[in-house]
Design a protein that fits this description.
CATH class of the largest domain: Alpha Beta
Strand order of the largest sheet: 23-22-21-20-17-14-13-25-24
Number of domains: 2
CATH topology of the largest domain: TIM Barrel
Structural class: alpha/beta
Helix content: 25-40%
Shape: globular
Largest sheet: 9 strands, parallel
Distance between the termini: 36 Å
CATH architecture of the largest domain: Alpha-Beta Barrel
């Protein structure tokens, strides 16, 4: 494949005709720095295109805007009619290349690679409108091209991901334990969480590293929404955190920071996108102060982990699985602060959360993948698995673990989601395989179950937790044949799962 990063064409798209928008590029070997400035114009997109030539059939794999939705896969170049967020790898199963942008960039970048060449669409909007730069110069992205000779595709992708992220945020200890969502689905109480914490301590028998007990959506006054104060079934969240610690576990908690029914915040500080629901606008100083106070309250209660959820949807109006080339499909709206790009706004929000959380472990769920790197410890790489539907766990869990495992410890710790255990739903022989794969994957493990699990399940989970605390070598094998690889190389041996 012939590809010269120096030879490209550019196109600028603004709210109106282009008058004073200026693009600047700096190229150093296989890196391209892209800058933009404008005074009167309101830039929306910058499009870059490279002509390419290839004489062999290639297979192409891309990434997702945030979580993946069971849809990651290698496609033949001749069939690759899709935009791929952030980066992609192309290979003939022998040689290949990777092309993408570094994490933490100030724009949303997606790629299209087909027989006509490579096109990068750089989204620098504010909301659904052009951004008011007012003469400010913004570094939009750093593009990195890397060519690989013969070698394992997974190892090449892992090496490339390391080049994209300078400072991943990796916890000092391995993170594992319980999460109550996939058996409770929003229906729980104080005593049930205490029971769950006791169970996790039992399941972690023989392990010095304490397990977490994460309280998911269920503890606050309104379902999937703030204000972040306990409902009558929980009452005293500080006392609950203390009791979880006394039992020998570590307390964690779920929040949706941008959806809140506390009307004292003020409607003028909310994003309106043509629907009845309104969402907090994180560019407003009063909202920033409010979010900071929410997190500090949780921390002062004694919680050691925060899982913040839904922010991509609440910011841009869609889940990543419903998006194509851009981060939002909704036009004609903007944030309170019109002078920053959407990516800058997301980064500011994540930095605010990280600073307020201090030494708490942070899990990003439905957060923007490339912008989460270095700002969350754990990242939910796929949509929800299930305690009720095995097919959902297979599609969402196995797919994301296989095709985003290269990001583990290079961007953050990849959280492929829970093993959900509900009696009379998913057969244990299926869930046990998912548990086994997670235990060898070097990624976090969360189990969602009650103390109704039987003796064999307890034994299997304890063994998985012990396996999890060792270092393993693992990679998927049949990645060109299926979205849900069943063949894995684990510590030098081939393991075949019957999904």
């Amino acid at each position: 494949m012939v590809f010269d990063i120096n030879k490209f064409s550019t196109k600028i798209i603004c709210d109106d005709i282009v008058t004073d928008t200026h693009i600047e590029t700096l190229i150093n070997e296989n890196q391209l720095e892209l800058y933009i400035t404008a005074t009167k114009d309101r830039p929306q997109f910058v499009e870059l295109h490279w002509d390419t030539e290839t004489t062999v059939e290639q297979y192409v794999l891309g990434d997702g805007w945030e979580r993946s939705y069971g849809n990651l896969e290698f496609l033949k170049l001749s069939e690759n009619d899709r935009y791929m967020p952030w980066y992609f790898i192309a290979t003939d199963k022998n040689e290949g290349f990777c092309f993408g942008v570094k994490t933490g960039c100030n724009s949303f970048v997606s790629f299209r690679y087909d027989t006509n060449g490579i096109t990068a669409l750089v989204d620098c909007r504010n909301g659904g409108n052009g951004v008011h730069l007012n003469g400010r110069k913004v570094h939009l992205a750093t593009f990195i091209y890397e060519k690989y000779g013969s070698g394992d595709v997974y190892e090449c992708l892992k090496d490339y991901c390391q080049k994209l992220c300078d400072k991943p945020l990796i916890p000092k200890e391995k993170i594992y334990g319980g999460n109550n969502w996939y058996y409770a689905y929003g229906k729980s109480n104080y005593n049930q969480i205490i029971s769950d914490a006791k169970l996790q301590v039992e399941l972690a028998n023989g392990i010095d590293n304490k397990p977490f007990q994460v309280i998911d959506d269920c503890w606050q006054k309104f379902s999937c929404c703030g204000p972040w104060l306990p409902n009558r079934k929980f009452k005293d969240m500080k006392k609950l955190a203390h009791e979880i610690k006394e039992l020998g576990a570590r307390p964690g908690i779920w929040m949706r920071l941008l959806r809140n029914k506390d009307m004292t915040i003020g409607l003028k500080m909310r994003i309106k996108r043509g629907n009845k629901r309104q969402y907090l606008d994180p560019t407003h100083p009063k909202v920033q102060k409010y979010i900071k106070a929410d997190i500090e309250r949780i921390k002062n209660w004694g919680y050691e982990l925060i899982k913040h959820d839904f922010s991509t949807f609440d910011l841009f109006g869609d889940f990543g699985g419903d998006l194509t080339s851009t981060i939002t499909k909704i036009d004609g709206w903007h944030f309170y602060d019109k002078t920053k790009t959407n990516a800058e706004i997301v980064l500011d929000l994540y930095r605010l959360i990280k600073d307020a959380a201090g030494d708490m472990i942070i899990i990003g769920c439905n957060t923007v993948s490339h912008l989460s790197a270095g700002l969350v410890h754990l990242y939910r790489t796929g949509d929800d698995t299930s305690g009720k539907e095995w097919e959902r766990t297979k599609v969402m869990g196995v797919n994301t673990l296989a095709f985003r495992l290269a990001q583990n410890k290079t961007f953050y710790m990849c959280d492929a989601d829970c093993v959900g255990i509900l009696k009379d739903y998913v057969p244990w022989e299926k869930n046990k395989q998912w548990l086994h794969l997670l235990s060898y994957s070097n990624t976090p493990i969360f189990i969602s179950c009650t103390d109704e699990i039987n003796a064999q399940q307890r034994k299997d989970i304890n063994e998985a937790y012990k396996t999890f605390h060792k270092r393993h070598q693992i990679k998927p094998i049949d990645i060109f044949e299926t979205r849900t690889p069943s063949k894995w190389e684990i510590d030098g041996e081939t393991v075949i799962y019957n999904w």
